Amino acid sequence: MYNVVVAVIIFGVLSLLTSCKKHEKQANFYFDKGVLAAKKKNYQSCIFNLNKIDEMAPYSQESKSAAPILIFCHYAMKDFEAMHSEINNFESLYPTSSELPYLYYIKTLSYYKTFKDHKKSLQIVESLESGIDKINEIDTTGSYSRNINMLIPFIEDVKEKNSLYIANNYAISQNFISAAARYSQAYNNSNEDNKKIVENSMDAVLRNLGIKK
Fold it and tell me: Which of 90, 122, 145, 167 is 20 to 30 A distant from 21 in Cα terms?
């Protein structure tokens, strides 16, 4: 009876090892196919093949190696929602991965690519700003922070235009006190070129408030 039990255990272990080897071989096969597809810019095929790895070998080294490539393919296809979800999942599994600065870099760039104008996209700009802060925090080599920080003047310009837009709306609705407050805020935060625009826009408001003749 003892020998039978041992034999069953050994058979089970061997079967498990055989299954693991088979899955590892299949995972490598799909990884190679996915990488080749990415090199050919066939991103849909890459996504299909790399997703196969998670089906057969989740949490494996192959799955970990495939994730950044998979994320880039979603980025290249402008499927930003799927990309953000994949990044969140990757970070939860590998919070100390050296790939995170790069992944946050393309995540932040995705916000820039979806920006439309200062009237509609201020929330996107805030996400962009938050992403830049995150990259500066975790990118110890400066490889990505140097490039992404080039977007800071763009963010400042958008915020200035948005403040001026809100102030103009207050002025149009004859809410001159709120308009004056917003114009003052916009003026203090503006560059020299935009300050001239703000000054011109403020004239009518100040006259209505009796501050300027």
Answer: 90
